[in-house]
Every structure is written in C-alpha cells, then in structure tokens.
Amino acid sequence: MTVPQLPLALAPPRRPRFSNFVAGDNALVVRTLRDGLEPGQWVRVSGPPDSGRTHLALATVADLSKRGLRVAFVPARSPTAASLLDAADAASIDWVIVDDYDALAGSAEGERALFNALNRWRSARTGVVLTGGDRSGIDLPDLRSRLGQAVHLVLRPLDDRGLEALLRQLLEDYSVVAGRGLVDYLLRHGPRGVGRLTRLVEAMSQRALAERRVLSIPLARECLDRTREG
C-alpha cells in the first residue's frame, strides 16, 4: 500500500517591514517613516511604479501599530476606495496610510472622497502618509493643493547593487537554497521592479519547496517563461 506524501509546509507570505526593505538610495525616506513621523503630520511618498511604495506603506502601518497607535490602511486601488475613505473616522484613528493615492486620479468620486477625508483628518490632527506617483493627474485643484501641503519624499528605483541586495534578502526571508549563479542570472534576466522581482522569487521559492528542488537557474528560467506567457 502506497502512503501518499504529505505536502511540505510552505513559507508564509513575506511580511513587509522596515527591517526587510532594501533602501538603496532611499535611506532618508525609510528613516523619516520609521523614526521621523510626528503626530498630525502629513507625508507624501512618491516614486515610480514597482519601486517599493506599497512595502513602505505596509511597513509604516506595522510600525505605528506596534507602538500602540490606532492606524487605518486604505488601498486606493481597491474598487471600494471611496467608501473606505468615507468610513475612515478621524475621531477613532491616530494615523491613516493611503497607498497608491494617484489611482484615484480622474475619478470625480474618488478625488472628492480623498479631499473630504483629508479635510476631516486635518481638523482632527490625524497623521497621514500617502504613497503613490505624482499628483499631476489629479483633476480637482483643491485636492492637488492639499497634497502639495504634505512633506514630500521621493523614492528612487534600486540600482544593480540594490537589486542584488534585495535578491539576497528575499532568499533569506524565504529560507531557500540558491543554486550557483542564480543571483547573477536574475540580475541579467529578471525584472527590475521591486514588486515584480519579489513576486518572482516568492513563486520560485514556493515551487522549490513544494517540488524539493534547489532554487536553480533552470527553475528561474521556467518561472520567467511562465511570467512572460501570462
């Protein structure tokens, strides 16, 4: 009688924290979000897509919550973002983190909801951190003006050295063994964006653990081909 094999326990999802964010040229941004936020302050972090903005947003949520502060997180790309903004009661929160705020650009309902929310939060002296791209796509002039009142931090993409550090951090986070030459291969052929590279290594790690394989170049090639086909 053949006893079926139990599946291996896979690594849990990677939790975005300041401790596993590879800063590169963004040390000032990280220090400000981790150590420099003051009650009632507004901070806007802008950067290109896939530069780690959401990681920093979630790390800020975790860090502020760990200090015992009441934090609301609003993913602006959510179809219900306007409702989430309306529901963020300024009287019951110390900080609100709005991720991808520029996803509301061009939506009259979304822009108005964010503008009204910012007014409520200002009156209540609620701290606000907004992450996203620039504010040029915002149609509502009053909202563009409000966003311009926040301390502005610019997030820069990682260079090759930073991407290598990120790859090594990801391998450590997922507790997988990398085959010879894997890091160099991914630096040459893998995606350059932080988010896409993170998702690729996560997918590779899950397959390597499930199939009891080393995280090798052939496995990386298979995962990259699937990504391109998808």
Shape type: elongated
N→C terminal distance = 40 Å
Percent helix:
40-55%
**What does the average pLDDT come to?**
90
SSE-based structural type: alpha/beta
CATH architecture of the largest domain: 3-Layer(aba) Sandwich
User: What's the total number of strands?
Assistant: 5
Q: Give the spatial strand order of the biggest sheet.
A: 2-3-4-1-5
Radius of gyration: 20 Å
CATH topology of the largest domain: Rossmann fold
Order of helices and strands: HEHEHEHEHEHHHH
Number of helices: 9
Taking the sheet with the most strands, its summary is: 5 strands, parallel
Looking at how many chains there are and whether they match, the oligomeric state comes to single chain
Percentage of residues in strands: 5-15%
Low-pLDDT stretches: 1-11
